[in-house]
């Protein structure tokens, strides 16, 4: 993974971590349920953006390399991995 992409991912993770700590404080302070839900939705959206960055990196590196490879088994392995990730999210 290139250093710029890695830093982008780490920054997003730190932001998400901060949001989670904020939600923990809100729970401790008995915050209004809708406010909690709004914050957890924001965390879910931030995680979805993180997933998109990681997926794009994977497609532009590992998957591209595997598809260009002469090794049919490697191509199938990478495609199967992708399918498994998306199938597990839709169960």
Structure in words:
One of its GO terms (biological process) is negative regulation of DNA-templated transcription. This is Transcriptional regulator. It comes from Chloroflexus aggregans (strain MD-66 / DSM 9485). The chain has 91 residues and is mainly α. It has one domain: Metal-sensitive repressor, helix protomer (Methane Monooxygenase Hydroxylase, Chain G, domain 1, Up-down Bundle). Helix content is 88%, strand content 0%. The protein has three helices and no strands. It has helices at residues 3-28, 33-68, 72-89. Helix 1 runs antiparallel to helix 2 (33-68) and helix 2 packs antiparallel against helix 3 (72-89). The chain is elongated, with a radius of gyration of 18 Å. The model has no long low-confidence stretch (mean pLDDT 92).
Protein topology:
Blueprint: H1 3-28, H2 33-68, H3 72-89
Helix pairs in contact: 1-2, 2-3
In a few lines, what is going on in this structure?
88% of the residues lie in helices and 0% in strands.
Look at the structure and give the CATH class.
Mainly Alpha
Give the biggest beta sheet. Answer: none
Question: What percent of residues adopt helix (DSSP H or I)?
Answer: over 70%
Shape type: elongated
> What ranges have pLDDT less than 50 throughout 5 or more consecutive residues?
none
Write the H/E string, N to C. HHH
Q: Rg, please?
A: 18 Å
Report the oligomer.
single chain
Give me some keywords for this one:
mainly alpha, single chain, Methane Monooxygenase Hydroxylase, Chain G, domain 1, DNA binding, 91 residues, elongated
């Amino acid at each position: 993974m290139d250093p710029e992409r890695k830093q982008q991912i780490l920054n997003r993770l730190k932001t998400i971590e901060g949001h989670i700590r904020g939600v923990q404080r809100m729970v401790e302070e008995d915050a209004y349920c809708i406010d909690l839900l709004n914050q957890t939705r924001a965390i879910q959206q931030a995680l979805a953006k993180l997933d998109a960055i990681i997926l794009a990196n994977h497609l532009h590196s590992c998957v591209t390399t595997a598809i260009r490879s002469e090794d049919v088994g490697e191509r199938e392995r990478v495609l199967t991995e992708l399918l498994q990730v998306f199938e597990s999210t839709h169960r």
